[in-house]
Amino acid sequence: IEDGTVLCKLIECGFQNMEYAALSYRWGNSPHAAMTTTENYSDRLLAIPFLDIPKTIREAIYLCYGLNCRYIWIDALCIIQPNPQTGDNLDWEAQSAVMGQIYANAMVSLAASSAIASSEGLFPSKGVFDTIPPPCLFPSGAGGGFVIEPEYPKWHQYIDNAPLQARAWVLQEKLLSSRILHCTQYGIFWQCVELRAHECQPGDPYM
């Protein structure tokens, strides 16, 4: 990102040891402009028109930049998609075979957990209920009074039952990723081998 302009392109990394993020998301019901094909592959080594790719992918690139990570792996961009005219799907077959390694070796996986399609973005709006639920009264534990605290989003409700979990590939992505940032309309949830938490309660595990 230079002077507010996003410079996005494919990088042939070969066997270099590079730190990167990976995106876990749902495409939706139709193909989209993010797809790399044999026809546009050479051009994408120079530049990818940023505004032409879906909102979820654009926001994932911004988030990756915010995490100080220069590289992100996104299946639609990084795999040459099968050609229905020629039947060529060699790159997809090769890359799908090592998909597990891709997520396992990523610095972090960014999960668009609430979006049902790539056009919705990482934090899709759900109308008037797109914020954290209203506060509730809890016993203070001191003096018999009460404390007003937000009722924070529950892991089971907003992650385990999220739209992303209906995608078959995501089971592999979820199990093999060492760290996951779940992006939802209720904020960001964190998951790693030691902790599951919400951004409003970073020290409280969701077990």
Give the key terms.
7 helices; two-stranded antiparallel ribbon; single chain; 8 strands; 6-stranded mixed beta sheet; 23% helix; 207 residues; alpha/beta; elongated
Give the SSE layout:
Blueprint: E1 20-24, H1 41-44, H2 55-66, E2 71-73, H3 75-78, H4 90-97, H5 99-104, E3 108-112, E4 135-139, E5 146-150, H6 155-160, H7 170-176, E6 179-184, E7 187-192, E8 196-198
- Radius of gyration equals 19 Å
Portion in strands: 15-25%
Q: What's the count of strands?
A: 8
- Oligomer description: single chain
N-to-C SSE series?
EHHEHHHEEEHHEEE
Percent range of helical residues: 10-25%
Note the gap between the termini.
38 Å
Inertia-based shape: elongated
Query: How would you characterize the largest beta sheet?
Result: 6 strands, mixed
- Mean pLDDT rating: 81
Uncertain spans: none
- The DSSP helix count reads 7
For the largest sheet, list the strands in their spatial order: 2-1-3-6-7-8
Main structural class: alpha/beta
Structure description:
There is one protein chain. The chain is of the alpha/beta class. It contains seven helices and eight strands. The strands form two sheets. A six-stranded mixed sheet has the order 2-1-3-6-7-8, with helices on both faces. It has a two-stranded antiparallel ribbon with strand order 4-5. The protein is elongated, with a radius of gyration of 19 Å.
Describe the structure concisely.
The chain is an alpha/beta fold and 207 residues long.
